[in-house]
Design goal:
Blueprint: H1 2-38, E1 43-49, E2 61-68, E3 74-81, E4 84-89, E5 93-98, E6 105-115, E7 120-129, E8 136-147, E9 154-160, E10 163-168, E11 175-180, E12 186-191, E13 198-204, E14 207-212, E15 217-222, E16 228-233, E17 242-244, E18 249-252, E19 257-261, E20 268-273, E21 284-290, E22 293-298, E23 303-308, E24 314-319, E25 337-342, E26 349-353, E27 358-366
Parallel strand pairs: 8-24
Antiparallel strand pairs: 1-2, 2-5, 3-4, 3-6, 6-7, 8-27, 9-10, 10-11, 11-12, 13-14, 14-15, 15-16, 17-18, 18-19, 19-20, 21-22, 22-23, 23-24, 25-26, 26-27
């Protein structure tokens, strides 16, 4: 009987082995199918070049695209810059030129390659555009010194109808002040709740708009009596400086970008990236708009930059070093330069700083 038993066992083993082989082939086939599906996305190589080593405002920028398809056929490749479609092509290799590209700052290029069966591959590449001008260098001439409360931690400064409006910071000390420009005497005060750190202000359409630092809240006051009439929320992580042009509110948030807000909804409508010929200008703080240009303090420095509001180019830099040597007590404890106000009627420029005992009327003077 033993030989029969062994033969039966042998036949059973053969059946099990055959079943195992079939199952293995099925699993292998399924796995290969999945692997093949994963590999079917087209691969896109992106090259971005200009005539300069770094891309400069106004350059012709060439985008080179090379698509590799391992199986199937390519239908088209679409190219987007900052979410805007700029071109498409059915060719596996092609180039596209952005003629005289005039958009400062950092941008994202997205290439979406699509095969005939609908399979897509998305690829990204960033590039940066610098200003094409070297900022002019300015110093200043002191016209006169006016009194300024040395306890004011200045965050926003504005002149309207001959009065100085000022927003001050620090939790528990933040307020909005209306003062006599010549004497520094406070005419009216609105104190903020202790949890708010006051920041930049601007006066637009008979309203005073005021930012706060890290609470993402802004306040709107009636200009006539400084009564609080509304509040708004903004998306930026922090609020720093504020001004306005003929149409929009403009705010800074400590980065190199300025955000334009609709004055009714207070929602962001666009951004302006600020660059000089070398890099982005960060820590943009208190702002003032005048005749198509935005003047801005650069936090922790004595620089006031002048920005072309249409392009974001820094057209000049004014060095305010030495301004504190002209105060009656040059050893007084102060913080950083912060506060620019230009009288819209006279065109006179005034500057001060956090805890500065003086408000200075100055004239920019070109160097060299």
């Amino acid at each position: 009987m033993k030989p029969v038993i062994l033969f039966n066992i042998y036949r059973m083993n053969l059946r099990l082995f055959a079943a195992f082989i079939v199952l293995s082939l099925f699993v292998s086939s399924f796995s290969c199918s999945n692997q093949s599906s994963r590999e079917r996305k087209p691969v896109v190589q992106i090259k971005i070049e200009s005539v300069n080593r770094k891309i400069v405002f106004g350059d012709d920028v060439t985008i080179g695209i090379s698509v590799k398809v391992k199986d199937g056929s390519l239908k088209e490749t679409r190219i987007y810059i900052d979410t805007v479609l700029v071109t498409s092509s059915p060719q596996a290799e092609f180039s596209y030129s952005l003629k005289k590209y005039e958009s400062l700052g950092k941008h994202t290029l997205k290439a979406v390659a699509t095969k005939a069966d609908g399979t897509q591959g998305e690829y990204f590449k960033s590039f940066e555009v610098l200003s094409d001008i070297v900022p002019e260098k300015y110093g200043y001439e002191l016209v006169q010194s006016l009194p300024h409360n040395p306890a004011f931690f200045t965050e926003g400064l504005e002149i309207h109808n001959g009065f100085l409006y000022e927003s001050t910071g620090q939790n528990g000390q933040s307020a909005l002040y209306k003062t006599n420009l010549k004497t520094g005497k406070v005419v009216q005060t609105v104190k903020l709740a202790d949890r708010f750190f006051g920041e930049g202000i601007t006066i637009f359409n008979n309203r005073i708009y005021q930012l706060t630092y890290k609470t993402k809240v802004g306040f709107i006051y009636n200009l006539d009596n400084m009564a609080l009439v509304d509040s708004f929320h903004f998306a930026s992580a922090e609020g720093w400086g504020m001004t306005h042009d003929e149409k929009y509110l403009i705010m800074s948030d400590g980065t190199s970008s300025l955000t334009y807000l609709d004055p009714v909804s207070c929602k962001a409508v666009k951004k302006l990236q600020v660059y000089d010929d070398r890099d982005a200008v960060v820590y943009i703080n208190e702002l003032e708009y005048s005749e198509g240009f935005i003047y801005a303090n650069v936090w922790t420095t004595n620089l006031i930059i002048k920005i072309d509001s249409k392009t974001g180019k820094v057209v000049s830099k004014m060095d305010m070093d030495g301004i504190l040597s002209m105060v009656s007590n040059p050893n007084a404890q102060v913080d950083v330069l912060n506060g620019i106000a230009i009288d819209p009627v006279t065109g006179k420029m005034y500057i001060t700083g956090k805890l500065y005992p003086t408000l200075f009327e100055i004239k920019p003077v070109k160097k060299g």
